[in-house]
What does this fold into?
Amino acid sequence: MSMSLENLIALSQARTESLFDFYLKKAAMPAKSLQESMAYGVLNGGKRIRPLLVYAAGTVVGAEMENLDAAACAVELIHSYSLIHDDLPAMDNADLRRGKPACHKAYGEAMAILAGDALQAFVFQILASHPNQLSANQRLEMIAVLSEASGPFGMAAGQALDITIMDKNISAEKLLHLYQLKTGALLTASIKLGMLGIAELPPETRSALEKYAAYIGLAFQIQDDLLDIESETAILGKPQGLDIANNKMTYPTLMGVEATRKKVQNLTDLALDSIIGLGAKGDILKKLAEYLLRRKL
It folds into this structure.
Protein backbone atom coordinates (compact mmCIF):
# COMPACT_ATOMS: atom_id res chain seq x y z
CA MET A 1 0.00 0.00 0.00
CA SER A 2 1.47 3.36 -1.07
CA MET A 3 1.86 6.22 1.40
CA SER A 4 0.70 9.77 0.72
CA LEU A 5 3.24 12.56 0.90
CA GLU A 6 1.32 14.16 3.75
CA ASN A 7 1.50 10.94 5.77
CA LEU A 8 5.19 10.49 4.97
CA ILE A 9 5.96 14.06 6.11
CA ALA A 10 4.04 13.52 9.35
CA LEU A 11 5.71 10.17 9.95
CA SER A 12 9.17 11.56 9.19
CA GLN A 13 8.74 14.48 11.55
CA ALA A 14 7.27 12.36 14.36
CA ARG A 15 10.00 9.72 14.23
CA THR A 16 12.81 12.26 13.88
CA GLU A 17 11.59 14.51 16.69
CA SER A 18 11.20 11.47 18.94
CA LEU A 19 14.83 10.55 18.31
CA PHE A 20 15.97 14.12 18.97
CA ASP A 21 14.05 14.11 22.25
CA PHE A 22 15.71 10.84 23.28
CA TYR A 23 19.27 11.70 22.28
CA LEU A 24 19.36 15.43 23.04
CA LYS A 25 17.05 15.85 26.03
CA LYS A 26 16.74 12.51 27.84
CA ALA A 27 20.34 11.36 27.48
CA ALA A 28 22.42 12.03 30.61
CA MET A 29 25.31 14.11 29.29
CA PRO A 30 28.03 15.28 31.70
CA ALA A 31 28.03 18.95 30.57
CA LYS A 32 24.54 20.40 30.96
CA SER A 33 25.32 23.67 29.18
CA LEU A 34 26.69 21.78 26.19
CA GLN A 35 23.62 19.55 26.05
CA GLU A 36 21.32 22.57 26.22
CA SER A 37 23.13 24.36 23.41
CA MET A 38 23.09 21.22 21.24
CA ALA A 39 19.37 20.81 21.81
CA TYR A 40 18.77 24.50 21.12
CA GLY A 41 20.55 24.28 17.77
CA VAL A 42 18.49 21.28 16.69
CA LEU A 43 15.09 21.66 18.34
CA ASN A 44 14.29 25.23 17.27
CA GLY A 45 12.22 24.20 14.27
CA GLY A 46 13.31 23.56 10.71
CA LYS A 47 11.87 21.91 7.63
CA ARG A 48 13.56 18.54 8.28
CA ILE A 49 13.97 18.02 4.53
CA ARG A 50 16.96 15.70 4.87
CA PRO A 51 15.27 13.17 7.17
CA LEU A 52 12.27 13.31 4.83
CA LEU A 53 14.54 12.35 1.92
CA VAL A 54 15.93 9.43 3.95
CA TYR A 55 12.46 8.09 4.69
CA ALA A 56 11.23 8.76 1.15
CA ALA A 57 14.11 6.84 -0.45
CA GLY A 58 13.72 4.09 2.11
CA THR A 59 10.02 3.84 1.33
CA VAL A 60 10.76 3.53 -2.39
CA VAL A 61 13.17 0.63 -1.88
CA GLY A 62 11.04 -1.10 0.75
CA ALA A 63 13.20 -0.54 3.85
CA GLU A 64 11.78 -0.93 7.35
CA MET A 65 11.28 2.39 9.12
CA GLU A 66 13.33 1.34 12.14
CA ASN A 67 16.29 0.77 9.81
CA LEU A 68 16.05 4.38 8.62
CA ASP A 69 15.70 6.15 11.97
CA ALA A 70 19.38 6.48 12.88
CA ALA A 71 20.28 7.79 9.42
CA ALA A 72 17.40 10.29 9.41
CA CYS A 73 18.44 11.57 12.83
CA ALA A 74 22.13 11.66 11.92
CA VAL A 75 21.84 13.61 8.68
CA GLU A 76 19.73 16.29 10.35
CA LEU A 77 22.20 16.60 13.22
CA ILE A 78 24.99 17.16 10.68
CA HIS A 79 22.85 19.81 8.98
CA SER A 80 22.08 21.46 12.32
CA TYR A 81 25.74 21.55 13.35
CA SER A 82 26.60 23.19 10.02
CA LEU A 83 23.98 25.88 10.59
CA ILE A 84 25.26 26.60 14.11
CA HIS A 85 28.74 27.13 12.70
CA ASP A 86 27.50 28.98 9.59
CA ASP A 87 25.84 31.60 11.79
CA LEU A 88 29.04 32.42 13.70
CA PRO A 89 30.59 35.89 13.20
CA ALA A 90 33.59 34.34 11.44
CA MET A 91 31.29 32.70 8.88
CA ASP A 92 27.96 34.27 7.80
CA ASN A 93 27.57 36.43 10.93
CA ALA A 94 23.82 35.81 11.28
CA ASP A 95 21.91 36.80 14.41
CA LEU A 96 18.76 34.80 13.59
CA ARG A 97 18.09 31.18 12.75
CA ARG A 98 14.55 29.86 12.22
CA GLY A 99 13.14 33.07 13.69
CA LYS A 100 15.09 32.80 16.96
CA PRO A 101 18.47 34.05 18.14
CA ALA A 102 21.28 32.03 16.58
CA CYS A 103 22.97 29.53 18.90
CA HIS A 104 25.98 31.78 19.50
CA LYS A 105 23.65 34.63 20.42
CA ALA A 106 21.84 32.46 22.95
CA TYR A 107 24.82 30.58 24.42
CA GLY A 108 27.95 32.45 23.35
CA GLU A 109 30.41 31.77 20.57
CA ALA A 110 32.55 29.24 22.44
CA MET A 111 29.58 27.08 23.41
CA ALA A 112 28.14 27.28 19.88
CA ILE A 113 31.42 26.01 18.46
CA LEU A 114 31.44 23.15 20.98
CA ALA A 115 27.77 22.36 20.26
CA GLY A 116 28.56 21.96 16.57
CA ASP A 117 31.64 19.85 17.32
CA ALA A 118 29.68 17.61 19.67
CA LEU A 119 26.78 17.13 17.26
CA GLN A 120 29.16 16.11 14.48
CA ALA A 121 30.81 13.45 16.67
CA PHE A 122 27.48 12.31 18.16
CA VAL A 123 26.17 11.52 14.66
CA PHE A 124 28.61 8.69 14.13
CA GLN A 125 28.03 7.30 17.62
CA ILE A 126 24.31 7.11 16.79
CA LEU A 127 24.88 5.45 13.41
CA ALA A 128 27.16 2.87 14.98
CA SER A 129 25.06 2.01 18.02
CA HIS A 130 21.36 2.83 17.52
CA PRO A 131 19.29 -0.37 17.88
CA ASN A 132 18.02 -1.73 14.55
CA GLN A 133 18.32 -4.70 12.21
CA LEU A 134 21.07 -3.24 10.03
CA SER A 135 24.17 -5.34 9.45
CA ALA A 136 27.60 -4.11 10.49
CA ASN A 137 28.39 -3.55 6.81
CA GLN A 138 25.26 -1.41 6.30
CA ARG A 139 26.18 0.70 9.32
CA LEU A 140 29.71 1.10 8.01
CA GLU A 141 28.43 2.15 4.59
CA MET A 142 26.13 4.72 6.21
CA ILE A 143 29.05 6.15 8.17
CA ALA A 144 31.16 6.29 5.00
CA VAL A 145 28.40 8.02 3.01
CA LEU A 146 27.67 10.66 5.65
CA SER A 147 31.30 11.39 6.52
CA GLU A 148 32.21 11.87 2.84
CA ALA A 149 29.21 14.14 2.25
CA SER A 150 29.91 16.33 5.28
CA GLY A 151 33.72 16.54 5.22
CA PRO A 152 36.47 17.83 2.92
CA PHE A 153 34.94 16.14 -0.13
CA GLY A 154 31.46 17.54 0.48
CA MET A 155 29.79 20.13 2.68
CA ALA A 156 32.91 21.45 4.43
CA ALA A 157 34.62 21.92 1.06
CA GLY A 158 31.59 23.83 -0.20
CA GLN A 159 31.59 26.04 2.88
CA ALA A 160 35.31 26.73 2.45
CA LEU A 161 34.75 27.77 -1.17
CA ASP A 162 31.76 29.82 -0.05
CA ILE A 163 33.95 32.05 2.11
CA THR A 164 36.93 32.22 -0.26
CA ILE A 165 35.56 32.63 -3.80
CA MET A 166 31.93 33.74 -3.51
CA ASP A 167 32.85 37.42 -3.32
CA LYS A 168 34.88 37.24 -6.52
CA ASN A 169 34.00 36.83 -10.18
CA ILE A 170 32.78 33.27 -10.59
CA SER A 171 31.32 31.36 -13.51
CA ALA A 172 27.91 29.70 -13.37
CA GLU A 173 29.64 26.32 -13.72
CA LYS A 174 31.87 26.90 -10.69
CA LEU A 175 28.97 28.27 -8.68
CA LEU A 176 26.88 25.17 -9.37
CA HIS A 177 29.82 22.96 -8.37
CA LEU A 178 30.06 24.88 -5.09
CA TYR A 179 26.34 24.31 -4.52
CA GLN A 180 26.75 20.59 -5.22
CA LEU A 181 29.33 20.43 -2.45
CA LYS A 182 27.82 22.79 0.12
CA THR A 183 24.18 21.72 -0.11
CA GLY A 184 23.79 18.99 -2.71
CA ALA A 185 26.23 16.54 -1.10
CA LEU A 186 24.20 16.21 2.10
CA LEU A 187 20.90 15.99 0.23
CA THR A 188 22.31 13.29 -2.05
CA ALA A 189 23.65 11.51 1.02
CA SER A 190 20.14 11.53 2.51
CA ILE A 191 18.87 9.53 -0.47
CA LYS A 192 21.85 7.16 -0.27
CA LEU A 193 21.25 6.62 3.44
CA GLY A 194 17.64 5.71 2.72
CA MET A 195 18.77 3.22 0.08
CA LEU A 196 21.12 1.61 2.60
CA GLY A 197 18.10 0.71 4.71
CA ILE A 198 18.03 -2.54 2.75
CA ALA A 199 20.94 -4.88 2.12
CA GLU A 200 20.59 -5.35 -1.65
CA LEU A 201 19.48 -2.87 -4.31
CA PRO A 202 19.43 -3.14 -8.14
CA PRO A 203 22.12 -0.88 -9.70
CA GLU A 204 19.58 0.86 -11.94
CA THR A 205 17.45 1.81 -8.93
CA ARG A 206 20.48 3.14 -7.09
CA SER A 207 21.54 5.19 -10.13
CA ALA A 208 18.05 6.65 -10.64
CA LEU A 209 17.74 7.72 -7.01
CA GLU A 210 21.22 9.26 -6.91
CA LYS A 211 20.50 11.31 -10.06
CA TYR A 212 17.19 12.44 -8.56
CA ALA A 213 18.95 13.54 -5.38
CA ALA A 214 21.66 15.45 -7.25
CA TYR A 215 19.13 17.44 -9.30
CA ILE A 216 16.89 18.12 -6.30
CA GLY A 217 19.88 19.24 -4.23
CA LEU A 218 20.86 21.86 -6.80
CA ALA A 219 17.29 23.05 -7.26
CA PHE A 220 16.91 23.38 -3.48
CA GLN A 221 20.01 25.57 -3.07
CA ILE A 222 19.26 27.78 -6.08
CA GLN A 223 15.74 28.34 -4.79
CA ASP A 224 17.26 29.33 -1.44
CA ASP A 225 19.09 32.09 -3.33
CA LEU A 226 15.74 33.35 -4.59
CA LEU A 227 14.21 33.18 -1.14
CA ASP A 228 17.10 35.21 0.28
CA ILE A 229 16.16 37.97 -2.17
CA GLU A 230 12.38 37.76 -2.14
CA SER A 231 11.29 36.59 1.33
CA GLU A 232 10.94 38.79 4.39
CA THR A 233 13.04 38.03 7.46
CA ALA A 234 9.94 37.17 9.53
CA ILE A 235 8.91 34.56 6.96
CA LEU A 236 12.37 33.29 6.10
CA GLY A 237 13.37 32.74 9.73
CA LYS A 238 16.86 34.19 9.19
CA PRO A 239 18.13 37.62 8.11
CA GLN A 240 16.80 38.43 4.64
CA GLY A 241 19.39 39.66 2.14
CA LEU A 242 22.28 38.06 4.04
CA ASP A 243 24.03 36.96 0.84
CA ILE A 244 23.96 40.52 -0.49
CA ALA A 245 25.14 41.91 2.85
CA ASN A 246 28.07 39.47 2.81
CA ASN A 247 28.88 40.42 -0.78
CA LYS A 248 28.40 36.86 -2.01
CA MET A 249 27.77 35.92 -5.61
CA THR A 250 24.58 33.90 -5.99
CA TYR A 251 22.80 32.34 -8.94
CA PRO A 252 20.17 35.10 -9.23
CA THR A 253 22.89 37.77 -9.02
CA LEU A 254 24.87 36.04 -11.74
CA MET A 255 22.07 34.93 -14.06
CA GLY A 256 19.05 37.07 -13.14
CA VAL A 257 15.85 36.21 -11.27
CA GLU A 258 13.82 34.89 -14.21
CA ALA A 259 16.66 32.68 -15.44
CA THR A 260 17.02 31.38 -11.89
CA ARG A 261 13.35 30.44 -11.69
CA LYS A 262 13.69 28.59 -14.99
CA LYS A 263 16.79 26.79 -13.72
CA VAL A 264 14.96 25.57 -10.62
CA GLN A 265 12.11 24.28 -12.77
CA ASN A 266 14.52 22.64 -15.23
CA LEU A 267 16.42 20.85 -12.47
CA THR A 268 13.15 19.67 -10.95
CA ASP A 269 12.05 18.33 -14.33
CA LEU A 270 15.36 16.49 -14.69
CA ALA A 271 14.88 14.98 -11.23
CA LEU A 272 11.45 13.70 -12.26
CA ASP A 273 12.79 12.33 -15.54
CA SER A 274 15.50 10.40 -13.70
CA ILE A 275 12.97 8.29 -11.77
CA ILE A 276 10.56 7.48 -14.59
CA GLY A 277 11.95 3.95 -14.68
CA LEU A 278 10.86 3.38 -11.08
CA GLY A 279 7.21 3.45 -12.16
CA ALA A 280 4.61 3.72 -9.41
CA LYS A 281 7.27 3.19 -6.73
CA GLY A 282 8.68 6.62 -7.57
CA ASP A 283 5.37 8.47 -7.14
CA ILE A 284 6.23 9.62 -3.63
CA LEU A 285 9.45 11.18 -4.94
CA LYS A 286 7.55 13.00 -7.69
CA LYS A 287 5.21 14.49 -5.10
CA LEU A 288 8.17 15.37 -2.91
CA ALA A 289 9.90 17.23 -5.75
CA GLU A 290 6.75 19.24 -6.42
CA TYR A 291 6.41 19.95 -2.69
CA LEU A 292 9.98 21.29 -2.51
CA LEU A 293 9.44 23.42 -5.62
CA ARG A 294 6.38 25.07 -4.02
CA ARG A 295 8.03 25.73 -0.65
CA LYS A 296 8.01 29.28 0.68
CA LEU A 297 10.45 28.71 3.52
